[in-house]
Amino acid sequence: MKAIRFLLILAILGALGYAAYRILLPEVITNAINSEEIPSYIPESTREELQEVRKTIDDQVKKLPEKMEEMDLSYEDLMLVVEEMNEKDILATYESLRKSPPSTTDEAYDVIVNNLQLESVDMERFRTYFNESVTVDKINDVVIKAEKSKLFSQMSLPVLKSTIKQLLMQREDEIKSRLEESNK
What is the pTM of this model? Predict the structure, then answer.
């Protein structure tokens, strides 16, 4: 009887830990990125890297509405794309780009389109923008950085996806107001 009780408690603790990892971790990460000051619970060794991430995200959020307008993409469409992406497709895209580095942006885009199974948007509508905005070197750099940082092994893709969604939701007003300004 004690063994069953112990296993039941262990299972409950495991479920709570998993829930905290999947639900709370994205919120903690998002809050650390969006807060005015770096929270005290962030280790000193990580603060500089977090500061760089914050700057990159701020820069990208500022550019996002203009890019969205160029692609005729609404905020709701963007959220649908993020929601629809799944771990298997993202890993397959990463592995394809890692194993066979593309020689052209069209080649890279073909790999992305072939691996990401999105029904909410027609991926071909983004090809021209992709080809104009991205270089082969940049794609290869991202693949190398992801590999070096062990991004896919340190943070599960569902947690990463949830973090991205929370970042977009926390900045929804900013994105939408910039989108309205660029439409004027």
Answer: 0.66
Q: How many domains does the chain have?
A: 1
Q: How far is CA 105 from CA 60, 88, 124, in A?
A: 21, 22, 13
Provide the token pair at 66.
């203009």
User: Both tokens of residue 132?
Assistant: 């104009």
Buried b (16+ CB within 10 A) or exposed e, 48-83: eebeeeeeebeeeeeebbeebeebebebeebbbbee
Q: Is the pLDDT of residue 161 over 90?
A: no
> Secondary structure of 18-68 in the HEC alphabet?
HHHHHHHHHHHHHHHHHCCCCCCCCCHHHHHHHHHHHHHHHHHHHHHHHHH
Q: Which domain holds residue 175?
A: 2-183
pLDDT per residue as tens digits for the range 105-120: 999 999 999 998 888 8
DSSP calls for the chain = -HHHHHHHHHHHHHHHHHHIIIIIHHHHHHHHHHSSS--TTS-HHHHHHHHHHHHHHHHHHHHHHHHHHHTT--HHHHHHHHHH--HHHHHHHHHHHHHS--SSHHHHHHHHHHH---SSS-GGGGHHHHHHH--HHHHHHHHHHHHHTTHHHHS-HHHHHHHHHHHHHHTHHHHHHHHHHHH-
